[in-house]
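Figure S7 source data.
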Amino acid sequence: MSYNSILVEQKNAICVITLNRPDKLNSFNTEMHRELAAELNRVAADPHCRVVVITGAGRAFCAGQDLSEKKFNPNDAPDVGKSLDEYYNPLVKRLRGLSIPVITAVNGVAAGAGANIALTGDIVVAAKSARFIQAFSRIGLIPDAGGTYILTHKLGEMRAKAVSMLATPISAKRAKKWGLVWQVFDDDTFMDDVMALATQMSQQATVALGLTKQAIHAVSSNSYDQQLDLERRLQGEAGRTDDYREGVTAFKEKRDARFTGS
Ligand code: LHQ
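Tokens for the predicted LHQ complex:
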């Protein structure tokens, strides 16, 4: 499929999606939303794709909603919520719900909904020069695209409120210290480091990684007992994969496992 606002590259089992509106710091217009949704649907149905990497072209990851598209008529009250219903909420749900790991590779500034899409990755990595800005309060909005959920869970109330209300930029270094980011890579080697990580993950037992993600997401709404039941059910599924047999066989034969992702 050919796109205009995103670039797509498949490298072995890794699907790299690059948000590609660098003049607008890769902010989202309708076209970019539609293309990204179409590509994520394609990836979800493609058994050859075992990891998704999302990054940005140029100096930004994503500056959230394209504000230059907004036109205000003095007589109507815009319903910003509609855009969340139509685009942002389905997007972040899709990313969390994908049964393969999503690496968000935050190459530069990530602001507004762009910051929260970045933080939705299963593994979030950042270039040293990247920063995360909950820019919403500067334009009279609240953090969206799952921002209030992710920030409160990962940072606690005090920091979540401060970074949201003050729109204080969070450096990559601080984001790592606060547990928002898994690893920070040098700017010069960023995409090579990201691809090394993606390659490693693309050779793991893909079904088990997807089930791990599902189990961890369920924690916030489950009791301990419910979580044990869920682990029991999902472990049953993992145990029925070819990769489980291969993992145990490789261990016994003292060799590296050759997982196929099934
Ligand atoms: C942009 C943008 C942008 C257009 C930079 N749009 N052009 C959901 C539902 C519906 C409606 C509302 O929103 C939402 C969710 C949201 O995401 S709300 C939050 C929207 N995003 C923001 O408020 C961030 C706006 N951008 C910024 O604050 C700065 O650009 C950051 C901090 C990201 C980067 O600052 P600088 O490095 O100083 O770059 P810059 O400001 O000079 O921007 C470079 C160019 O990119 C510039 O264009 P120009 O033609 O002057 O070179 C900006 O106008 C353009 N740009 N963000 N969101």
